[in-house]
């Protein structure tokens, strides 16, 4: 099963810039294109950091500026009404990535919403807390974040699971950090390394990698990283005491009641019947198992009907649709939900996705412009001359972009567009490119600080001062980042 090819404009960019009409045309070809690249990245950071421009608008504006500076014509950038067959770099870049990323993110978002509203997270956390006991409650919270983080966004995971953290910390009388940091590590790892989250899915689309390889390498690189983060959590949690934020406990109760009332107003009556833990785990695991089976059927099996069937059910679109239908029935209809309720929850869950999809699409446009203009090739040639391994280079570029502007998604899609030509030149295996994606993802979570919305969300929900958030959450993200990259880099030596 091969990932659908992206229809990026000018798929085979020449070694030298094909355009001579750019504003920097008087400069030597490669030097001029490198200057364009530097201006583009600097402009992107300026617009996001200083001007506070929405990342989608900033990426789109920078893509147009880079294309014009590098010499792309207006027709090449936008196409024309008169010539319907003219290739529009912007349209092909946007459509090429969103053609499959949007479906995967949309299905995954709806799946996470059903698990959230049905009480799956509470069941998972309470069962694990009961299984591990009071002494190992931090580990139970970490596993809860790790498992529940697969289908839900990072901020949703915090919102749903924070009250459970408050309760565990209140019972023990210990620092809330002992319980929230392992949870945050699990949520952050899955958000950065595993589909159906936007970052790894977008990178897989841009670099043309089977999603099964991304899942496998995400698990292989992410699990050691999260173990290192849990070790740090245990160490720092005993050295910095943060009490349970009483105002957030009260706010959480009010929010919970508001959600219940909103559900009732929408026709969703909360159910008292608890969800079975096996049901929750089965629904979350179904798409992962199906996609992995399809990926490796092409290696283990010859062309046959059996292989075709496995690849069909393991296609990400089909696998996630199956998981969503299972959630609809097992968590909804079988427990008394109406079809109207399921529609209401699903529709509401898609509202926050628009911004993410637009940013990912604009990243696809940026990558297409870099490729069509020859800028990406010039960068590729320069990076090859530097001599750094592509996996190290990918990590460093993503890390710098992340620290500078705060958005992990922007860091991932921008880096993927820059390094794509480096990977296109060599005969790299799917496994190796998946490890490069892990390096990019690892770089995108390094040193979350005050320019990252996640920093303030963690500080607010768990009552941590800005200074202590830098000492705990920022360092935790850095541990995750470095550990994940180290595993990916070591594995790349053998792939």
UniProtKB/TrEMBL annotation:
<dbReference type="InterPro" id="IPR003474">
    <property type="entry name" value="Glcn_transporter"/>
</dbReference>
<dbReference type="Pfam" id="PF02447">
    <property type="entry name" value="GntP_permease"/>
</dbReference>
<feature type="transmembrane region" description="Helical">
    <location>
        <begin position="21"/>
        <end position="49"/>
    </location>
</feature>
<dbReference type="GO" id="GO:0005886">
    <property type="term" value="C:plasma membrane"/>
</dbReference>
<protein>
    <submittedName>
        <fullName>Gluconate:H+ symporter</fullName>
    </submittedName>
</protein>
<feature type="transmembrane region" description="Helical">
    <location>
        <begin position="390"/>
        <end position="419"/>
    </location>
</feature>
<keyword id="KW-1133">Transmembrane helix</keyword>
<feature type="transmembrane region" description="Helical">
    <location>
        <begin position="431"/>
        <end position="450"/>
    </location>
</feature>
<feature type="transmembrane region" description="Helical">
    <location>
        <begin position="55"/>
        <end position="75"/>
    </location>
</feature>
<keyword id="KW-0472">Membrane</keyword>
<feature type="transmembrane region" description="Helical">
    <location>
        <begin position="214"/>
        <end position="236"/>
    </location>
</feature>
<feature type="transmembrane region" description="Helical">
    <location>
        <begin position="275"/>
        <end position="300"/>
    </location>
</feature>
<feature type="transmembrane region" description="Helical">
    <location>
        <begin position="176"/>
        <end position="194"/>
    </location>
</feature>
<feature type="transmembrane region" description="Helical">
    <location>
        <begin position="139"/>
        <end position="169"/>
    </location>
</feature>
<dbReference type="GO" id="GO:0015128">
    <property type="term" value="F:gluconate transmembrane transporter activity"/>
</dbReference>
<feature type="transmembrane region" description="Helical">
    <location>
        <begin position="352"/>
        <end position="370"/>
    </location>
</feature>
<feature type="transmembrane region" description="Helical">
    <location>
        <begin position="312"/>
        <end position="331"/>
    </location>
</feature>
<keyword id="KW-0812">Transmembrane</keyword>
<feature type="transmembrane region" description="Helical">
    <location>
        <begin position="470"/>
        <end position="494"/>
    </location>
</feature>
């Amino acid at each position: 099963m091969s990932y659908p090819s992206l229809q990026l404009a000018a798929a085979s960019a020449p070694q030298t810039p094909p355009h001579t009409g750019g504003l920097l045309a008087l400069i030597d070809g490669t030097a001029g294109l490198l200057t364009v690249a530097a201006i583009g990245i600097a402009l992107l950071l300026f617009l996001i950091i200083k001007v506070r421009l929405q990342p989608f608008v900033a990426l789109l504006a920078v893509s147009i500026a880079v294309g014009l500076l590098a010499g792309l014509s207006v027709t090449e950038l936008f196409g024309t009404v008169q010539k319907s067959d003219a290739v529009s770099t912007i349209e092909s870049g946007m459509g090429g990535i969103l053609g499959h990323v949007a479906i995967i993110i949309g299905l995954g978002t709806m799946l996470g919403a059903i698990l959230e509203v049905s009480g799956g997270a509470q069941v998972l956390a309470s069962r694990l807390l009961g299984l591990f006991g009071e002494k190992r409650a931090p580990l139970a919270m970490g596993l809860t974040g790790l498992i529940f983080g697969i289908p839900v966004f990072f901020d949703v995971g915090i919102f749903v699971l924070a009250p459970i953290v408050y309760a565990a910390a209140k019972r023990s009388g210990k620092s809330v950090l002992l319980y929230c940091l392992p949870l945050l590590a699990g949520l952050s790892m899955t958000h950065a390394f595993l589909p159906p989250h936007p970052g790894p899915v977008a990178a897989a689309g841009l670099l043309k990698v089977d999603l099964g390889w991304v899942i496998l390498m995400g698990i292989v690189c992410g699990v050691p990283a999260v173990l290192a983060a849990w070790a740090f959590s245990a160490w720092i949690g005993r050295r910095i005491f943060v009490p349970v934020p009483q105002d957030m406990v009260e706010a959480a109760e009010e929010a919970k009641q508001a959600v219940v009332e909103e559900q009732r107003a929408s026709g969703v009556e909360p159910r008292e019947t608890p969800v079975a833990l096996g049901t929750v785990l089965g629904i979350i695991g179904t798409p992962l198992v199906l996609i992995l089976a399809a990926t490796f059927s092409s290696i283990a099996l010859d062309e046959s009907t059996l292989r075709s069937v496995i690849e069909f059910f393991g296609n990400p679109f089909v696998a996630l649709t199956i998981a969503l239908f299972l959630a609809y029935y097992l968590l909804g209809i079988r427990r008394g939900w109406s079809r109207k309720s399921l529609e209401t929850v699903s529709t509401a869950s898609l509202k926050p996705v628009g911004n993410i999809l637009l940013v990912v699409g604009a990243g696809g446009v940026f990558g297409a412009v870099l490729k069509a203009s020859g800028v990406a090739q010039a960068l590729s040639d320069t990076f090859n001359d530097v001599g750094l391994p592509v996996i190290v280079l990918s990590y460093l570029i993503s890390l710098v972009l992340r620290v500078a502007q705060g958005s992990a998604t922007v860091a991932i899609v921008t880096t993927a567009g820059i390094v794509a030509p480096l990977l296109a030149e060599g005969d790299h295996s799917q496994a190796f490119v998946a490890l490069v994606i892990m390096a990019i993802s690892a770089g995108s979570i390094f040193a979350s600080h005050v320019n990252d919305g996640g920093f303030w969300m963690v500080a607010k929900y768990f009552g941590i001062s800005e200074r202590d958030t830098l000492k705990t959450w920022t360092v935790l993200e850095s541990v995750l980042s470095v550990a994940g990259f180290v595993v990916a880099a070591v594995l790349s030596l053998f792939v």
